[in-house]
Amino acid sequence: MVASGSYRFSLRPASGSLLFVCLAFAWMNPPPCDSFFHLSPPVSRQSSAPQQTANPPLLKHPPIRFALPRRVYTCDGGATLTVLIETNAVRVMLNGQVFNLQAVSDGAKYSDGAIVWLTDDKGEAGVLEDHSNAANTKTLAKNCRLQSTFPSRAMPLSTLAGTVTFAKRPSLPEGAILLVELRDQNGSASGPAAELAEVQIPLKGCSSPVTFELKFDRAQLPTGVRAALLASISSGTKQLFLLKDPFPIPDLANPPPIALALSPVGHGKSHPPSAATPQNPPQQGLERPLADTSQLYLWPSPALRGQSL
User: Fold this and answer.
1) Would you call the peptide bond into 63 cis, given omega within 30 degrees of 0 as the criterion?
2) Does residue 8 have a pLDDT over 70?
3) Nearest-angstrom CA–CA distance, 91 and 89
């Protein structure tokens, strides 16, 4: 304890005095409000540069796949052959096998050195061959006919061509027309055969034989069709010539040579007369036979011969 005048100072530290000194120092040197007395969590100080946000993750899409042009053929034996067309190449698929072939000529022949796919100029028909053994070429698919395409396109029409012959007599009148029909013989026995296609040719100035071309859409034919040709020549409602029997076409893809011979109507097979119609009808005035001829008198005059009085 040290006495100084009327004041006394104690040199022993006191907790209350120390607290007062700290509070006075804090009052004279206040700390930043946001670091001492602020109750909210401190906010980090950032530069004035704009904050760059992270790009959102890109959505994963499946890769885009472009469908190759495709042609589907039907070959002998019912085999289906599919051709995918690439640039100067094709991919031929047959019975689970795939052949990658390169173009050899202008879009008509493709080969890998052993397998050869050969088509016509329009790609409507083709044949697939195996030339692995030059001495023994094998045909893998023949008579392949185009059935469908992708992208879809108008399918070419098939054609049946042939000739029609008929007699020079009777002569053809003005307006005579030749009608050639393609019909399906699978129709019922009670009804006519279903018509598949037809062509009409005016015969003005034409003489026998006459050539014809009948076009039809093979893709529209019913399954198991039994095709046959019918032909006739008519003028107005009168039929002049007729094909007696239908001309069958077993394979429309490979038709046989067609030559139709027409016969004049009325000179064909004769039909027996009906039982209800008598063959020799009685003459007028002699419907009943004479029972008594005693009343008949014959005169020598030629003018009255055979007459009764």
Assistant:
1) no
2) no
3) 7
